[in-house]
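Worked example 3. Consider a protein that binds zinc ion.
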Amino acid sequence: MALLNCDFHIHSCLSPCGDDDMTPNNIVNMSLLNGLDVIALTDHNTCGNCRSTMAVGAENGLIVLPGMELTTAEEIHVTVIFPTIEKAEAFDGYVSSKRMPIKNRADIYGNQYFMDSMDNVVGEEPDLLILATEIGLYDVAGLAEEYGGVATLAHIDRHSNGVLGVLGNIDEDMGFSRAEITPNAPEDRYKERFSFLSFVKSSDAHDLLTIAEAHKCSVIKTKDRSAASVFEYLKNGK
Ligand SMILES: [Zn+2]
Ligand SMILES: [Zn+2]
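Given these inputs, the predicted complex is written out as structure tokens:
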């Protein structure tokens, strides 16, 4: 049995709104300093820095799950997390065909750096990553499952890009079994209102100082300390 401190929503320097110092090594080291056991890397509409960040995590004893924060056609944010990089990259390939091909203006929106596991910039994403995709909210949960991942409604307590801020409600037909709230949200109130959902608390960090401290995020119980067991919790755990 393992008790694991998790932050399932972190952006790297590949997200235009992510700080340039959200590099693979900085993210992993700050997470370890904060006492975390597990993070998920969830850049906007891309898994492009997951492979390098997972490699740094593996070297330093931090479990890094690959993921992305998908923007639906309705401008609602959903995190999709995978048990393996192969599954994440297959999903990434699909999503990239559903993004709007509008060029990033780094001077306005920020840089979108791909990095290797030594924190070298190895490329830049030319298209702006934060825009809505063609994927509708009601299709996300099934699509994630098809690719072997699990979808979570992101920051539902936040007005902008949260499902409640955009649509005003969550119904079971959307197909989600889990939602995310930010660290200071009143979890009991959301649990009462949406009894069919399980919850995680995540930081949605775009800079190093916002990465969750161990006691402020989700603490989960798994059968052992492994990426597979953490993923199993996200899929079926309460
Ligand atoms: Zn978001
Ligand atoms: Zn986010």
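Take a moment to read the result before moving on. The chain has a mean pLDDT of 97. Residues 2-236 form a domain with the TIM Barrel fold (CATH 3.20.20.140).
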